């Protein structure tokens, strides 16, 4: 069975900080927009390679990740050389884990 892909186009990956709405975005104001776009693109590629049962699962994970980053971005501090990309990747890992834990999803190849 051929796996469906998610469309990698999220508004952040399309605009890359150049849209009118980007000017009011906290990530853009703090200079994290391009790092966020890189992480979002990487996540989309990873989700495209995973054999999740539906496209909706992939979209839900990606959208929840975006929400969590935007919701928590005010608390990110680059202390001791911490990088935004590392912080965002950790949020993705936790979001993906939470998604499958919350739906009692049994997927042996998650690691």
Would you give an account of this structure?
With 111 residues, this protein is mainly α. Helix 3 runs parallel beside helix 5 and helix 4 crosses helix 5. It is 57% helix and 0% strand. It has a domain at 32-102. The model has no long low-confidence stretch (mean pLDDT 78).
SSE-based structural type: mainly alpha
Q: Kindly estimate the percentage of residues that lie in beta strands according to DSSP.
A: under 5%
The string of secondary-structure elements, in order, is HHHHH
Q: Could you tell me the mean pLDDT?
A: 78
Task: Give a brief outline of the structure.
This protein is an all-alpha fold and 111 residues long. The chain is built from 5 helices and no strands.
Could you list some keywords that capture this structure?
globular; mainly alpha; 5 helices; 111 residues
Layout: helices, strands, pairs:
Layout: H1 11-15, H2 26-29, H3 33-49, H4 55-72, H5 84-102
Helix pairs in contact: 3-5, 4-5
